[in-house]
Amino acid sequence: ILLFIFWFSVVPIKTLVFPTESCTSFVEMIPQKPMNLTAFTLCMRVATELSSQREIILFAYRTGNYDELNVWGELDGRATVGLSFYMAGNPVLFKVPELRALITHLCVTWDSTSGLAVLFLDGKRSLSKIYKKDHTVSPGGRVILGQDPDIYLGDFDKHQNFVGEICDVNMWDVVLPDSVIQGIFAGQREPRGNVFDWDMQLFHCPNCVMCNHKILIY
Ligand SMILES: [Ca+2]
Description:
metal-binding; signal; calcium; Pentraxin family member; disulfide bond; binds calcium ion; globular
């Protein structure tokens, strides 16, 4: 049974809660436009206590052939090494403090023309890196929160899944100015995401239970 849920901005708090390590818990986010992207800003609010224990998937956009855009909390051996994103190959890694129980506002930006990749944590900007200059993100895939698909949609590994809370996942097909990202961190609702707009987001959520303004995903 597929459960489609419309959430609109009249609902003040909308958080996805992934309570347990699981290989079934996921939410699919339906984009507003095809995801052939030569630039993007992807933001979310996220909290997890697992990042010190293992790698953890934060966002997955996969086509039949590639992980087109995956965001990870990375672990090397027993040490947290930071946050990374992958586009059809090797990652770009940012050495930042690990995610914890308190909600963190995370954004990543990338632009094909320059290859500039930047990460923001709670409005603080990272150094710039050059990553996948002239690359284009391909359309036709599926965007998943909660799991890392190793095939188009499936082959989930509970030792990589997301456990914690995610909300405010918004995406734009441009690189937003630093000042705008800092405003979004501070709670400003403009500009609306034109790839994902959390307040208008359509989800496919097969194992979800609604509870107040939270959605529990098992
Ligand atoms: Ca995997």
